[in-house]
Amino acid sequence: MKILLVDDEILLGETLKELLCMMGHEVFYAPDARRAREILARYGPEIGLAIVDIMLPGTSGSELAHWIRRTYPHMRVICITGYTPIPEPEPCGGGVPVIFKPFSVEELRPYLQ
Q1: I need a surface site. Which of 2, 6, 40, 75 has the fewest CB within 10 A?
Q2: What contacts 59, CB < 8 A, 6 or more positions away?
Q3: Which tops the pLDDT comparison, 84 or 69?
Q4: H or E element, residue 2
Q5: Among 69, 74, 66, 111, CA closest to 91
Q6: Strands, E, within 25-113: which ranges?
Q7: Are 75 and 68 in contact (CB under 8 A)?
Q8: Distance CA 54, CA 97 (A)
């Protein structure tokens, strides 16, 4: 599966990208919403899953997740965050799961099918 990973914590982003690649996925990594939109403009129809950090510089991950769901309705979205508790119950929209950092690959596995 092709995955878009958006996280401004570069060490976490690169580590998670590597793990997902080792599991057989093709991963496009972006440190912010601007770069994520550039990747989506080119590969959006091919990407099946977006993993988006809620707290991003500039455009928030929540805003990006909402935009992805409107623009690419075929794409599943998961939000990740290191902040607990989160200020609203569904920060990325209804039906979008939120996974709290630190998390294991096992917690992501159900979404990687």
Answers
A1: 2
A2: 32, 33, 34
A3: 69
A4: strand 2-6
A5: 66
A6: 26-30, 49-53, 76-81, 98-100
A7: yes
A8: 11
Q: In angstroms, rounded to a whole number, what is the distance separating the alpha carbons of residues 113 and 103?
A: 18
pLDDT band at 82 (very low <50, low <70, confident <90, very high): confident
- The burial of 83, by beta-carbon neighbours within 10 Å (0-12 exposed, 13-18 middle, 19 or more buried), is given as exposed
User: Which residues 6+ apart lie within 8 Å of 34 measured at CB?
Assistant: 58, 59
Beta-carbon contacts of residue 68 (< 8 Å; ≥ 6 apart): 40, 50, 52, 75, 77
The token duo for 74 is: 């075929």
- Of 13-17, 51-55, 87-91, minimum mean pLDDT range: 87-91
In the predicted structure, residue 89 carries a pLDDT above the cut 80: no
Query: What is the pTM for the complete model shown?
Result: 0.93
Residue 44 Cα distances to 13, 49, 91, angstroms: 19, 10, 22
Give dist(CA 104, CA 113) in Å, integer. Answer: 16
